[in-house]
Known about the structure:
mainly beta; 3 domains; five-stranded mixed beta sheet; 6 helices; 29 strands; 14% helix; 34% strand
Amino acid sequence: MRIMKNNKYNKKPTSLHCNDAGGGCRYSLLTIIIWTVVGFFLVVHLVSLYSRKDNNIHDDVSSSDQLQVVHQHQHQHLHLHHPVVHQLVRVEEEILRMPPPRKRSPRTSKRRSRKPIPLVEEFLDDKSPIRHLFFPGLKTAAFGPTKDMGNETSYYFPGKIWMDTEGNPIQAHGGGILLDEKSNTYYWYGEYKDGPTYHAHKRGPARVDIIGVGCYSSKDLWTWKNEGIVLGAEETNKTHDLHKSNVLERPKVIYSEKTQKYVMWMHIDDANYTKASVGVAISDNPTGPFEYLYSKRPHGFDSRDMTVFKDDDGVAYLIYSSEVNSVLHIGPLTEDYLDVTPVMKRVMVGQHREAPSIFKHQKVYYMVTSWCTGWAPNEALAHAAESIMGPWEKLGNPCIGGNKVFRLTTFFAQSTYVIPLPGVPGAFIFMADRWNPADLRDSRYVWLPLVIGGPADQPLEYNFGFPMWSRVSIYWHSKWRLP
C-alpha cells in the first residue's frame, strides 16, 4: 500500500502516517489486520446463518418423501411442493370492476368531481351495485352438506354462505377451532349472531344483542353439525356480563389436562366498548353447557380483540390488544387456565394491531394481525418470534393473489384463527371473517390455505445472530379443498 504524506488533494497527513521510528506503520498495519480478521469471521458467520437455514429446509424435505423446494421467480419465495401443496399455492387472480359513477344532481355535480368511489367504500356501502360480489346471495352462492354440490363437494368458497348439516347458515363469527383428541373431533366456537344489527351512531360500532357462543362439530373441517348455544345470554339481570345488551366477541376454547375441563376465554364489553375485559367460562364437555365464571381486565389493562394459544408444553397464553389498541400484551395463564399470571410482555408497541392469530411451526412462533380500522378491512401483517413473549418481527403482508385491493384488505376480511392443515407439514388453514357491518349475522367466512416457506420479504429489525424467518403466505382461491 502506497502512503502519501502530502499531495495537492489531501493536505493533511493520512491516518496511516509512518513516523521516523517506524512504530506508526506497525500500529496501522496491526489495525488493518485486526479489522480484516473481524470482517472474515463476520462473513463466515453470515454464511453459516444462510447454510443453517438451507439445511433446515432440506431436513424438512427429507422428512416427507413428496416434498420439494422450488423457486418461484415471481415472488422469489421458496414453497413446499407436493401434490397437495402445489394446488394450494397456485396464484389466482380476481377482477372486480368498479360500478359506473352514481347519478348526482346538477348542483352536486358542480361542487364535486366525478372521481370513482374506492372499492373499500363500495364494500361498506350496503346499497352498492356490486355488493353481490362481496356478499353473494343465499340462492345462488351457498355451499355445504345439504346443497347439491356435484363434483364440488368438500370445496371451500370464501365469502359465500356456509351451511351446516341442517341447511342453516353457520353462526360462529370471530371464533376458533378446538381439536378434541379424545374424540378426534373438531369443534368450532364463535359468536352466534342471529339478530338485527344496531349502530351506536352513524359511524359508531355495529353490534347485535348477545345471543351466546355457538358450537359446531366436524370430523372433516367441512361438514359442520350445529351443537347449539353452549354459553347463552342473560335475559333479565342487566348487571350480568352476559346480559343481552352487552358485547361478547372472539370466544376461544382450550382443554386443560390438569383439571380435565374445557376453558373458554372471550372479549367481554358493554354496549359502548368501555368495559374492555376478558371473560372466562368452563365446561366438562366440549359441547357445553359452559359455566360463566367472571370477567376482569387482565394485568390491570384494557383488553379488546384477544385470543388464547396452547403451546406444545401445555403452557397456555393470553394475547390481547390493549392500551386503546396501540399495543399487544402477551402473558401465560395459570396451570388451570382460569386466570393470567403476573407475567406480561408488551409487544408491537405503538403499532395498533388487533385480531391476533398465533400458530407455531418448527419451534418458531408466527402471528397474523390486522390494523385497527373498525369494520373497514385493512392490510394484514405476519410476524415471527423465537419466543412467544417476543421480540416479534414483521414479515410483511402475507396475502398473495386476488388483486392489489384484495391483498391490501386481507381479501376483504379480518384474521381470527389459524389451524394446521391435517397431514401437510408447513401448511395451515387461515380463518378470517368478512364482516358485514350493515347486517352482522350475514358476515361471511374466508378460509384460505396458509403456507410457510421461503425467506422473509422485508428487512429484519434485528441484525446478526437472528434467524431468517420463513415467509408466511396466504393464497387467494375462489374455491379450494382440503387434501
